[in-house]
Specification:
Low-confidence stretches: none
Distance between the termini: 98 Å
Number of helices: 0
Structural class: mainly beta
Shape: rod-shaped
């Protein structure tokens, strides 16, 4: 059958019928729904209905686009740099070589599984939606609650946006988990991750180190973990936790405009103010810079061993067998000594220092 501009094909008699739809040299559009699919462009309209498998191809040029619609049941979306498919029992549609593909969920516990290219890819995502750019191709998703994306090779970048509820982000070198009311994301092989809390809720973030030497930097607005081959940033989160597990890791924390209460204890540095709670745990060295309120206060607790506290001007250095802490521009400091031999050296003190327990 050739040279027909309008074609309707029906699969009604049963069997696993297959339809293949090809584009023209112009700008064409493929639309797939659970009950029918259409390939159309300038001068042609091809429609297939009731087919078990539908394959659409963009091979002949033009800025072709595809739109795949889910069913009211649970669908599975699979995407690669070359093709995107959606399937459930009795329905399979695939768009291959299209420059842009949009997938729209329609209820159910849909799952999307995407793979990036070997070059640099960019993912922008939020609750139940995403946009993945790779190799001059674009995949967008709307209305799918569970999303799994592997960035592939290359320095891949992702930007995440929260929901209006309480969301949680956990990030390691090579893996990021992001979840909240009604959505769940699993991201792997994305080297640069930026997550923003802008829509409300008491959002919490965990930033984990790698096996190498890593750096955790945290202010009331922005926190970041950086190490060999990765850079993970969170902005505007209510709770932020930085964790060190291997390598020689350092943490730098700073205060803000409101008064910050600092607690240094058990290899943890905690910064709490009226809006945020931040913690750096198990880092080898911690650097703390007080904020602009001139009301910051720090409580420093000794370890079970022998510790050393040195105060020069408004800088305090706390040295133990487990970690070292440097504290600057915090006007009020309380130091608690309970066990071991705790030594202190003071020169031209420019802070209000109160000692509790045993200090020599």
């Amino acid at each position: 059958m050739e040279n027909f501009s309008i074609v309707h094909a029906y699969s009604r008699a049963g069997g696993d019928d297959v339809a293949h739809l090809s584009d023209s040299m112009g700008d064409d559009r493929f639309v797939a729904r659970p009950d029918y699919s259409v390939m159309s462009g300038s001068g042609f309209y091809h429609r297939v209905k009731g087919f078990r498998y539908v394959h659409a191809y963009s091979r002949n040029g033009g800025n072709d686009s595809a739109q795949l619609f889910g069913s009211t049941n649970s669908d599975i979306l699979t995407g690669t740099p070359d093709w995107v498919s959606i399937r459930r029992d009795g329905y399979f549609a695939r768009a291959k070589f299209f420059k842009t593909v949009e997938v729209v969920g329609n209820g159910g516990t849909d799952v999307a599984q995407l793979s990036g290219s070997s070059q640099q890819d960019r993912l922008v995502a939020g609750p139940r939606w995403l946009s993945l750019s790779m190799n001059e191709k674009l995949i967008t998703i709307r209305g799918i609650p569970q999303i799994i994306v592997n960035g592939g090779s290359g320095w891949d970048i992702t930007e995440l946006t929260d929901s209006a509820g309480d969301d949680r982000l956990r990030s390691w070198s090579g893996k990021t988990l992001f979840s909240g009311p009604g959505f769940n994301m699993i991201l792997t092989s994305f080297e640069e991750v930026t997550a923003r809390s802008v829509n409300g809720g008491a959002d919490a973030a965990e930033l984990w180190d790698s096996s190498g030497d890593d750096t955790f930097v945290s202010s009331p607005q922005v926190s970041r973990m950086v190490g060999p081959g990765f850079r993970h940033t969170v902005e505007g989160f209510r709770y932020v936790h930085g964790y060190a597990t291997a390598g020689y890791d350092t943490a730098s924390l700073s205060g803000g405009l409101s008064a910050t209460a600092w607690t240094l204890r058990d290899r943890q540095a905690i910064a709490a103010d009226v809006n945020t709670y931040r913690r750096a745990k198990a880092f080898d060295a911690v650097f703390i810079e007080g904020g602009n309120s001139n009301q910051d206060e720090a409580r420093l607790f000794d370890t079970p061993g022998n510790d050393y506290l040195k105060v020069i001007g408004n800088e305090l250095t706390f040295v133990t067998s487990d970690w070292n802490v440097t504290l600057r521009n915090v006007p009020y400091v309380k130091a608690y000594g309970s066990t071991g031999t705790n030594l202190i050296a003071r020169t031209a003190i420019d802070v209000v220092l109160t000692l509790f327990g045993s200090w020599v």
